[in-house]
Structure formats: C-alpha cells, structure tokens
Amino acid sequence: MKMSTCTLCPRACKVDRSKTKGFCGAGSRPVVARAALHFWEEPAISGTCGSGAIFFCGCNLDCLFCQNHAINHTMIGKEWEPDALAGLMLSLQAQGAHNINLVTPTPHVDSIIPAVLQAKQAGLKIPIVYNTNGYETLDTLRRLEGIVDIYLPDLKYVSSEIARKYSDVENYFSFAGKAVLEMHRQCGILSCDAKGIAQRGLIVRHLVLPGSVDETRRVLDFLAENLPITTHLSLMGQYMPCHRSNEMPPLNRRLLRREYDRAIDYCLQLGFENVNVQALTSADPAFVPCFTGEVEVERENLMENPFNHE
C-alpha cells in the first residue's frame, strides 16, 4: 500500500497523506492520543492487570454519538515512527499489560505492521488486539493475518439509511459484515488462558442505541446466520448522548432499561452462548479516557469494570 494513494479503508480517498488529509484526518504517521493500562474493556481483554491500550487519532467514520470524538478527526499529540511505536508496545508489556490494544488502528496499518514485527523481534510476547469500528476492506485485513491475534470489531448497523444518518457512511454494512467474517476466518472462536485472558480469536461488539432495538436484532440475526453460536459477543449498554447526538432524536436520550433488556433477551433467544453485557451505569463520562497527547505509559484510576460476564 502506497500512502501516496491511500486506500486503506473503504472510503478509498486516494490522497497523498504526506501532503494532505483524507476523510480520517490522519497524516503519513500515526498520532497517539493516549497509551495506558486500560481496565474498562471486556473482562477477557482487560483482565486483572489491564489492556495495553494505544489510542490513535483519526477515524474513517463520523458517528454522531462518538465517545472518543475529541480524537476522531483531530490530531492530539505528535507523530510516531514505527520504531517508537514498537518501543511503546514493549513498555506496556513491561508494565504488565495482558495485550497490546490498538484502538482505531485502520488509518495507521502501514505503520502498525512494521512496529509490531519490530516489537516481536525485540521480545513482545503478548497478543495484539485490533480494536476497530468494523469499517474495513478485505485487502487491509488480509495484510494483518499473522500480525493480529485478537479482533475486537464493532458491528454497528445493517441498515444503510441508519448508517448514513448516524455515521455518515451508507455502505457500512456491506464492508463491515464481510470484515467480521474475515476476522473469524483468520482467528476463529475466542480462546483464553487458564485465567480467562484472551489469547486469540474474535469478539464482536454491538452498542445498543436508543430507539434502535430492531437494528440490534438485524445485527444479531446476521451473526447467528453466519458465525458459530459460540462466537463471543459484547452487547453494550453504555450509550450516552455526546458529541453531536443532541441533533438527532432519539440519540439525544439515554438507552432505556426495557430497550436493553429486549436486546439481551433476543440475543439469548438466538442461542448465543458467550455474551458480555453491561450495567447501565456504564453510561458514565467517567469511563471515557482523557486524551492529552502527552503519552506516558500510565495506569488508569481503578474503577469497577462496566462489563458483567455472562
């Protein structure tokens, strides 16, 4: 992939990112907004010691309700070369991280691949987590085979109309659905060690949105029809109005208890055996990381993990 004609994601802006920015706002090198031991992911990812989260700036979606909107199209911090990224991964491992959690990595795959390879040569042993919004091309994902150990994608929508209205991308599902199937092909069902810490596999995330339980059912139907019933799902209830969601009812309110219960009930009716759910108290700004661009390997203030493992 030549950065001078960027086609890393389905938008295929084909810009020269050393000279100008495409939709995601990223340049030729990644900008890291935060690196920390992160305790608020799914239990198999955060474990007891934390996930080594590296939050990248830039995103190929523009979700009205993005909790990380401070960095989705704004570059906070400095650019990182691949060798420096490799060193950051090794530092997180030395702090006790269970894995290296690459958050919104898609625009930066050209830097991530050499960084991971260099880090592994220098002693990186822990799994690599690819934490993505799901809007991926098969070509980019196939480049990651053997690099990524754990895929952690969102599957946000099936409806083109809702994807366009909420995330400014009409063809979201036509790419994200195929992407999830490719991730499963590469890494399979989630496998964990004796302590329940993920080592390899797929966890599919879906955020239940206010007024959108029917859309959740469509997502779950697709997964039930195309993946094993033992696939690990994360059915999230942490929605809270933020960013520009006040412009778009019903996104301007919180998820109702009865809406989330209906989504959980439907998921279980389909027979899924490995489902993480959340307490609705997870819809709290306290769980949104602070992005400063001053990257130091740090430990978050410990709070109760918002996931309940079921």
Q: What is the makeup of the main sheet?
A: 11 strands, mixed
Q: Which of globular, elongated, flat, extended, rod-shaped describes the shape?
A: globular
Average residue-wise pLDDT: 93
Query: According to CATH, what is the topology?
Result: TIM Barrel
Distance between the termini: 41 Å
Based on CA atoms alone, the radius of gyration comes out at: 18 Å
| Total DSSP E strands | 11
Helix/strand-derived category reads alpha/beta
- The CATH class name reads Alpha Beta
The CATH superfamily turns out to be Aldolase class I
Q: Note poorly predicted spans.
A: none
Beta-strand content bin: 15-25%
Number of helices: 9
Q: Which CATH architecture?
A: Alpha-Beta Barrel
Strand-and-helix sequence, N→C? EHEHHEHEHEHHEEHEHEEE
DSSP helix fraction: 25-40%
